[in-house]
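Ticket #330: bound-state structure for zinc ion.
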Amino acid sequence: MAEPQFDVISPYNSIDGLDSFRGIWHSHLAGDNLSPDDVHEICRAGRQDFVGVTDHDNRYSILPWSADDWYNAQDEDFLVILGFEATHPIGHVTCLGLGPDETGIDPEAARRNRDEKMELDAGYGGFLRRAYEGGAFLALNHPHRWRGEAEALLSEPDFDLVHALEIYNGNQVGKATAQGYTIDLLDECLTLGGELWVAANPDCHSWDDARSDGPFNGYSVVFAPDLSEDAIIESLKAGRFYASTGLEVDAIRVTPDRLEVSATECDRIAFFGEGGALLEEVEGPEAAYHFTGEERYVRAELEAASGSAPGPDDFPRMAWLQPVGVISAT
Ligand SMILES: [Zn+2]
Ligand SMILES: [Zn+2]
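RESOLUTION: The complex was predicted; output attached.
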């Protein structure tokens, strides 16, 4: 058989031998009267291995819990990664692995901007670069306001340093599905050559899973060598994860000519490419997509016919694989 005349680039090429860890990395403690230990307990009951705590920078100077309180709530089976949600002019940005002070953000100025309508410089100029160079994992959250404006978004200063786009944000889906479900914007960005990983998060402001702003309706399954902050952040940056609203993927395999995926509880697998075009759709728990070499990118979306994401909003149980780049050699 002739060799394919194209190259395939996928974060899943390097997941053999890695363990998988389930976690949420956009969450807030504000609202409920809970402690980091309570959050640990709730997360373990919700079968999560790690939590990224990302309170708003404009709440940071008045948070009741210190970093030590959070780190003390860890044990060998449960990892806490601290970060924050920057109130950046392009939108809310998750900065995972670094605090505001480590990225030049002034939380008190951010708080006064919000609470007192002051126009203080909270340090957003150059923030993305400082955070990136400091080793943080960066994601643009609930980006619905950029829908139809991908070109403008991609040309924002340093936006190329942002690793991921939230295509599912449970908190916003609780308000309106179109507001929290933005897979169309990801396709717009990828089509224009943007390089962004697909992400789903609860953005929980409550830790009650019966509520639409509860904790586990969107999460990531990360492939990493161990459950440490460095390993999880490195894998998130490299795209070694998939995003889910409650559908678990059993196997992902990318070869030089196809993308294979299987998930026991899945009823439909769809493959999408440039422009968000549907390339192929398969009923059932497994599928293999054969690349033609013309796609530029292919991403897989899985859906279960029954059940819904935790919470009251009836969002289907889905999983989104990271886009695979298909680069023509000619
Ligand atoms: Zn936000
Ligand atoms: Zn948030």
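RESOLUTION NOTES: Residues 26, 28, 85, 141, 203 surround zinc ion (ligand 2) (CB under 6 Å).
TICKET STATUS: resolved
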